[in-house]
Design a protein that fits this description.
Oligomer: single chain
Strand content: 5-15%
Helix content: 40-55%
CATH superfamily of the largest domain: Alpha/Beta hydrolase fold, catalytic domain
InterPro entries: AB_hydrolase_fold (IPR029058)
Organism: Thermocatellispora tengchongensis
Structural class: alpha/beta
CATH architecture of the largest domain: 3-Layer(aba) Sandwich
Radius of gyration: 23 Å
CATH class of the largest domain: Alpha Beta
Number of domains: 2
Protein name: Pimeloyl-ACP methyl ester carboxylesterase
Strand order of the largest sheet: 1-2-3-5-4-6-7-8-9
Keywords: Signal
Number of strands: 9
Shape: globular
Low-confidence stretches: 1-27
C-alpha cells in the first residue's frame, strides 16, 4: 500500500471527530469521520462506525465529478439508504474525488491509493477492502481489480463502463457515422471526431439534434434512426418510468431509442480527445451489414424500413461505400491504459447493471464477461442485472444485497448462487428489517454480444 510522506500528511491534515489508531481487526476503531484534501488536490472522506466489522468500501465517482479548485467533498457511494445500513451494520466507508475532471481515471487510480493509506493511518488496516463505483467510477473499481490487487480484496463496479472507453466510443462512432451518412450527408456542422474546440463540439451537437428531431417526424427518418441506434445497441427500453415496449412494437421501441440517442451517440468527445492526445475511435474495416445482423435488431429495423418504403440494402451499401475514420495510435494507447480491461482479475468481481441502461449500454457487461473468460478468470466474476431502464438508479436493497454477496465471496473463498432469485430473496429480507432500503428487481438476463469489443494487445 502507498504511504504518504510526513510532508504530504502535513499538507493533508483532515478535519476529524474521534480519531483512533486502533486496529480494525480489534473492532475498537471508531466512530471516525474524516474529510480532507490530498497533496494532488483530490479530496477524500472516511466514515468508520464504532463497531467496525473490519470491512471497508472505497468509492470512486463517475464522469465529470472532479474536486476542482473548490475541493468539492468526496462521496461515499451507493445511496443514502444503503450508506446508513452499511454504517449501522459495521462497514466503514471511504470515498475519493479526483482533482482532474472529465475522464479522470488516471488521477483517481492514484488518489484511491492515497485514500486507503489515509484510512490505515486514522483507523488501522481493514481486514477486507472492497472497491465500488458507478459509471466511470465502476471502470476504476475494475481497474483496481486488475492493477492493484495489493490494495483491495474485491470489486463491485455498478452501471459501469467495463468495456473500456475505446470500445464505448467506437460503438458511438458507428451510430454517429450511420446517422450522418444517411440523414446529414455533406453537413459539415455535424462532426464525428476531432472537434477543434468545445464550442465547435457544442455547435455540432446542436446541429445533430436538429437533424435527429426532423428525422423523427418522418417514417423514413425513424427507420434510419433505428438503424443507427442498432450499431450503438441503444436499449429499446430507455426511458425511466415507462413501460417496456412489446417485443414486436417497432414504433414504440424506436421512440425509446430516439429518446436516448443524443446522450448515447453524441456524448462529449472534445474533453476526452484532449485528455488522450487525439482521436481514439475508428471504423476502418467495420462491416455494417454484419453489425446489423449481430445486433439483434434486424427484425425491428427491417420492419420500420418496410413501413417507410425504404430499401435497407441500399442504405447498407451506402454505408459500406462511405469514407471511414481512422484513429491516432497514441490516443488509443492512453485510453487503453486508463482504463481498458484485459480481463486478468486479481480479486473477485461482481458487476451490477440495469437492463435498460445506455450510459453505458448493458451489452458492456457481456464484453467484460467475455474478456475475463478469455483471460481464464471467469470463476472470479459474477454479474447481476436489474429489470429497469435508466442509469445508476439502484435501490438501497439492491446495493446492500450486492455488497453482502461480494463480501461473502471474499471472506469464504466461494460464491453463493449469484442469481436473480437469491438476490431478490436476500434484498427482501434486508428490506423487511429496514424498509428504507426499498425493493429489489434483480432479473435473470443475458446481454447481447457487444458489437465492437476492444482488448489491448
Amino acid at each position: 500500500m502507498t504511504v504518504l510522506t510526513a510532508t504530504a500528511l502535513a499538507l493533508a491534515l483532515p478535519t476529524a471527530a474521534g480519531l483512533s489508531n486502533a486496529s480494525a481487526a480489534s473492532g475498537q476503531a471508531g466512530p471516525i469521520s474524516v474529510t480532507g484534501v490530498h497533496p494532488s488536490g483530490a479530496t477524500y472522506a472516511i466514515e468508520v462506525p464504532r463497531d467496525w466489522n473490519g470491512t471497508l468500501l472505497t468509492f470512486s465517482p463517475g464522469y465529470g465529478q472532479g474536486a476542482g479548485p473548490q475541493h468539492l467533498p468526496a462521496d461515499l457511494g451507493g445511496n443514502a439508504a444503503a450508506r446508513n445500513w452499511l454504517l449501522a451494520h459495521g462497514y466503514a466507508l471511504a470515498g475519493t474525488r479526483p482533482y482532474g475532471d472529465g475522464w479522470a481515471v488516471e488521477e483517481t487510480l492514484r488518489a484511491s491509493a492515497d485514500t486507503l493509506a489515509k484510512v490505515a493511518e486514522v483507523a488501522g488496516e481493514p481486514t477486507t477492502t472492497l472497491a465500488w463505483g458507478g459509471s466511470m467510477g465502476g471502470a476504476i473499481a475494475a481497474g483496481l481489480a486488475e492493477r492493484r490487487p495489493d490494495l483491495i480484496d474485491g470489486a463491485l463496479p455498478y452501471c459501469a463502463s467495463v468495456a473500456g472507453p475505446v470500445a464505448m466510443l467506437n460503438q458511438s462512432l458507428d451510430a454517429a457515422f450511420a446517422f450522418k451518412t444517411l440523414l446529414a450527408p455533406g453537413d459539415d456542422a455535424v462532426k464525428l471526431v476531432r472537434p477543434a474546440s468545445a464550442d465547435e463540439e457544442t455547435r455540432s451537437t446542436t446541429a445533430a439534434r436538429a437533424v435527429l428531431d426532423a428525422a423523427q417526424r418522418t417514417p423514413a427518418g425513424r427507420a434510419r434512426i433505428a438503424l443507427a441506434a442498432s450499431f450503438a445497441q441503444i436499449s429499446t427500453w430507455s426511458v425511466p418510468g415507462t413501460a417496456e415496449p412489446g417485443a414486436r412494437d417497432w414504433a414504440a421501441q424506436e421512440a425509446q431509442e430516439y429518446a436516448a440517442f443524443m446522450a448515447t451517440v453524441f456524448s462529449p468527445r472534445y474533453p476526452l480527445e484532449q485528455r488522450a492526445g487525439g482521436n481514439f475511435s475508428w471504423n476502418t474495416g467495420v462491416d455494417y451489414r454484419r453489425a446489423l445482423q449481430e445486433s439483434g435488431r434486424m427484425k425491428q429495423v427491417r420492419g420500420l424500413y418496410d413501413v417507410a418504403g425504404l430499401d435497407l440494402d441500399a442504405d447498407l451499401a451506402t454505408l459500406a461505400a462511405a469514407p471511414r475514420v481512422s484513429a491516432d495510435p497514441g490516443a488509443v494507447a492512453y485510453m487503453e491504459n486508463y482504463f481498458t480491461p484485459r480481463g486478468t482479475l486479481g480479486v473477485p468481481v461482481l458487476t451490477m447493471h440495469e437492463r435498460g441502461d445506455n450510459y453505458p449500454t448493458v451489452t458492456q457487461a457481456r464484453a467484460y464477461s467475455d474478456v475475463v473468460r478469455r483471460a481464464g478468470d471467469g470463476a472470479m466474476l459474477r454479474q447481476a442485472f436489474v429489470d429497469r431502464p435508466g442509469h445508476c438508479r439502484y435501490t438501497g436493497a439492491e446495493f446492500v444485497a450486492a455488497v453482502e454477496t461480494l463480501r461473502s465471496r471474499v471472506t469464504t473463498g466461494r460464491w453463493t448462487d449469484v442469481d436473480a432469485h437469491r438476490l431478490n430473496k436476500l434484498a427482501a429480507r434486508l428490506a423487511a428489517e429496514d424498509p428504507a432500503l426499498g425493493t429489489a428487481e434483480f432479473v435473470h438476463y443475458t446481454p447481447d454480444r457487444f458489437l465492437r469489443p476492444h482488448v489491448p494487445r
